[in-house]
Amino acid sequence: MKIFQLFLMLFFFINLDVSAQNSTATEQDKRMQWWREARFGMFIHWGLYAIPAGEWKGETGYGEWIRTSAEIPLEEYNQFINQFNPVNFDADQWVKMAKNAGMKYIVITSKHHDGFCLWDSKQTDFDVMSSPFKRDIMKELAEACRKNDMKICWYHSIMDWHHPDYLPRRNWETDRSSEGADFDRYVDYMKAQLKELLTNYGDISVLWFDGEWESTWTRNRGKDLYDYVRSIQPDIIINNRVGAGRSGMEGLNKEGEYAGDFGTPEQQIPATGLPGVDWETCMTMNSHWGWNKNDTKWKSTSQIIQMLADIASKGGNYLLNVGPKADGTFPQKAIDRLQQIGDWMKTNGEAIYGTTASPFKNLNWGRCTQKPLPIGTRLYLHVFDWPKDNNLVIPGIFNEPVQAYLLAEKDSKLKISRNEDALTITIPEKAPDLINSVVVLDIEGKPDVSNPPIIFAETEIFIDSLRVHFSSDRDNIEFHYTVDGSEPTINSPKGNQVFVKQSSTVKARSFRNGKIVSSSGSASFKKVSAEKAAINTKAMPGLAYSYYEGKWDSLPDFSMMLPKKTGVCNNFIFDPREQIEEFGFVYEGYIQINKTGVYTFFTDSDDGSRLYINNTLVADNDGLHSLHEESGAVALQKGLHLIKVTFFENSGGDDLIVSWKGPDFDKQLIPEKVLFHAE
Ligand code: FHN
């Protein structure tokens, strides 16, 4: 083959690959367009678990996990199917409540972890057609959505506690042998059900997978399932829980892991926007996904509206959950909130729909969303705390203002003035809305914003002195700073860092050509004395551990319990455990400090953990969560110091990673050689 022909062939294949990638990116942008525009959807968790309504044998804290959390044997749980008769279910009413609340899509549990199917499935009798209700709920809801211009989406659990081929079994299901179970056969069953859900109910807008965290579900199975679903509905959006690509409750994608079209933070809002990443925070309205009649911890309408603005200001979507009751109605407190949210959305929806993330890192009075205009940019200023002095200050913005008005009173022309780096809008005394008043500010061009300098140091505490340095996302600027908390001026010291020798509040501001170009960044640092080491201690290598068994949603007081086993282990390990779930540990002993200084300790755990030094809590990482890290710093003198780590595992994934960093070493796992216990 001639060189020229070879080159042409190579050029063709390279272009094919690149164009495939580009077309994939273009395809993804195309299918995500409505979703990015929508910003707000309704999650619905409904199934047999609504019948016990969170209560079982006197315990009232359950939700959709009741079968597993209350360890209800399959035969006993299956009886609920004979009671499932939601005679007040009205799909049209549900959809209208979502629509009136300003929601643009509905994601409903076609099948949750308990395996019960809310549609007429030919693959199983464990479906709604075997109940007294005998109506295809998914069909009715899909039709009602189409009638009301609402996108219909399926939640579908990969994990299935009912199907005989699903593995692993629950560890307490000792009476339910896994003999003969074939996980590949289960995957075929799941694909056959997805085929039903994706061919019998018209265009489905999102497939919201869940329950992907168990050992049997792998990256490759996720990729295969993604391709399978896309082969049936090419334009469907698929979340990142299709594969093994989700990093815990933060919900975003693990580096390099395969993961669908958007990240899924759960019950939390990312601290900052994630440029270029599509993500959706899913959240309960009270504290359960499935209906719990005793759950009174309802979020206020104010909280929900402000969270919606916060999420949109970070470029994300908000999927707010309703857990319908067994009779098919929404809880009244959910209905009330949806109505109030809708009232706010009717006036202010344009400040949410189709907006993108704020150009400001932080606004002390609220949030900002934005949309492009032919002349420049429309900024929607979501004011939670209405300024008392009638001045709404927008810091660090260099664009020429065009106009400003109240979104609730579009003919209200508001005065705009410039004061150094800031634009100030004169606003009326009375806020148009007590929860979130939106002020519109149109500016020329794309936002030209200078966020306050970032003020950074290794730790917030120090013994002798501490280097504090400043950085900014702007170039061609200089920093002026103070260390007494006062506002920096052009006459304040100039530089990129300062060494503090006593407790200080450091403020830094950006200047260009002698002019202020940002508001001030601020951070406080505390001078402390190093804690004294233990004295006359005879210490042996290894940590003393106590092992406990039980089911907890947060760290219990282990001191009130009898350990199942005690001993010595060489680090923070699970080897002594006797079951894979529902266990806890207390590790205690001494840690050898070889140099006086400030030490930062980290625990990265699934589920909860806490770390104490000298009986003081340093890192609090308690809670029911996937792998999540917390840290804290403490100043220690050379010698032995008490260390204690407590940990619990509820179910699913488990891990405990204990690290530290010190005055002369970077973050690393705590090595065995520095861990001891009292003789
Ligand atoms: O285990 C489920 C839980 O029941 C609920 O469905 C949430 C909603 O995102 N997802 C899982 C927990 O991460």
Overview of the structural elements:
This protein has four domains: 3-351, TIM Barrel (Alpha-Beta Barrel), CATH 3.20.20; 366-444, Golgi alpha-mannosidase II (Immunoglobulin-like); 454-527, Immunoglobulin-like (Sandwich), CATH 2.60.40; 539-678, Jelly Rolls, CATH 2.60.120.1560. Residues 1-23 have low confidence and may be disordered. The protein has 679 residues and is of the alpha+beta class. Strands 25, 26, 27, 28, 30, 31, 33 and 36 form an eight-stranded antiparallel sheet that branches. A seven-stranded parallel sheet has the order 5-4-3-2-1-9-8, with helices on both faces. The protein contains nine helices and 36 strands. Helix 6 runs parallel beside helix 7. Strand 30 (609-613) and strand 31 (616-621) form a beta hairpin.
How do the helices and strands line up, and which of them pair or pack?
Elements: H1 3-38, E1 40-44, H2 66-69, H3 74-78, H4 91-100, E2 105-111, H5 137-147, E3 151-157, H6 183-199, E4 206-210, H7 219-232, E5 237-238, E6 246-247, E7 252-253, E8 280-283, H8 301-313, E9 317-322, H9 332-348, E10 366-372, E11 376-383, E12 391-394, E13 401-406, E14 416-419, E15 422-426, E16 437-444, E17 454-456, E18 461-462, E19 466-471, E20 478-482, E21 497-500, E22 504-512, E23 515-516, E24 521-527, E25 539-541, E26 543-549, E27 565-569, E28 583-593, E29 597-606, E30 609-613, E31 616-621, E32 628-636, E33 639-649, E34 655-662, E35 665-669, E36 675-678
Parallel strand pairs: 1-2, 1-9, 2-3, 3-4, 4-5, 8-9, 18-24
Antiparallel strand pairs: 6-7, 10-11, 11-16, 12-15, 13-16, 14-15, 17-19, 19-21, 20-22, 22-23, 22-24, 25-36, 26-27, 26-28, 28-33, 28-36, 29-32, 29-34, 30-31, 30-33, 34-35
Helix pairs in contact: 4-5, 4-9, 6-7
The chain binds ligand FHN.
Residues 64-65, 210, 266, 282, 289 line the site of ligand FHN.
